[in-house]
Specification:
The protein is of the alpha/beta class. It has eight helices and ten strands. The strands form two sheets. Strands 6-7-8-3-9-10 form a six-stranded mixed β-sheet, with helices on both faces. Strands 2-1-4-5 form a four-stranded antiparallel β-sheet, covered by helices on one side. It starts with a strand and ends with a strand.
Length: 236
């Protein structure tokens, strides 16, 4: 049975300082699958991810045309509609960047930060969700006795898993990852890969990767971009 579409774009184009980065991209992504975005540097992969969470809106001299729709609650929503707040979108679409970006605070406060930002003040509920998120990324046993320590003291692989836990704490339906293992060693990279394979049961995952072996191990679908256009779309 073919998986339902979760994300779809139509004639999506994007430019920065007058330079076209994405050109008339029309594509859809299946729910609860891992899609790998591949292609040479500068082909538009990272920019494409930013169109799915609207992070580009804070960057000057940028222009987007076309549409992006995501299915929430069994119907597609135009995420650029005037009545669709970016804050709502980012609770449903989690993002993990290439380099781990722990905040200069404790492990616990790092992971709880999105809940605090959303206005949650229930300490018991926050504590339970922090523990749940850490368990989902298989980090709980490693840090449960160090939650009050600085997140900056964690190893690179632990920091990246912590960042994924932070992205998951609001229960997003989509997870976007931009080269999440590029700064990690082999062991830490494989841990992230296994984590993503487990997460796709509850998330639709798009991951930018330059590692073809990694793509073969984790991706259900591979989308190749070149010069801002999709040149190949492969289903496993």
């Amino acid at each position: 049975m073919k998986a339902s579409a979760k994300i779809r774009t139509d004639n999506l184009s994007f430019s920065y300082n007058g330079k076209m980065i994405l050109r008339n991209t029309t594509v859809s992504f299946a729910e609860n699958e891992i899609t790998a975005l591949v292609g040479p540097s500068g082909s538009g992969k990272s920019t494409f991810l930013m169109t799915l969470n609207r992070l580009w809106e804070t960057i000057p001299n940028t222009t987007m045309k076309g549409s992006v729709e995501i299915r929430f609650n069994n119907r597609f929503h135009n995420i650029y509609a005037d009545n669709y707040p970016a804050s709502t979108l980012r609770r449903q679409v989690g993002t993990v960047f290439q380099m781990p970006n722990p905040l200069p605070m404790s492990i616990f406060k790092n992971i709880a930060f999105p809940l605090r930002l959303a206005g949650d003040k229930d300490k018991e509920r926050i504590g339970a969700k922090v523990e749940q998120s850490l368990k989902r990324v298989r980090l709980w046993d490693e840090v449960k006795d160090r939650l009050s320590e600085s997140a900056l003291a964690l190893s690179g692989g632990q920091q990246q898993r912590m960042c994924i836990a932070r992205a998951l704490i609001l229960g997003p339906e989509i997870l976007l990852l931009d080269e999440p293992t590029s700064s990690l060693d082999h062991k830490a990279s494989r841990a992230i890969e296994q984590l993503l394979l487990g997460l796709k049961e509850s998330c639709t995952i798009l991951v930018v990767s330059h590692y073809l072996d990694q793509v073969k191990r984790i991706a259900d679908t591979v989308v190749e971009l070149s010069n801002g256009e999709i040149v190949e779309f492969l289903n496993d």
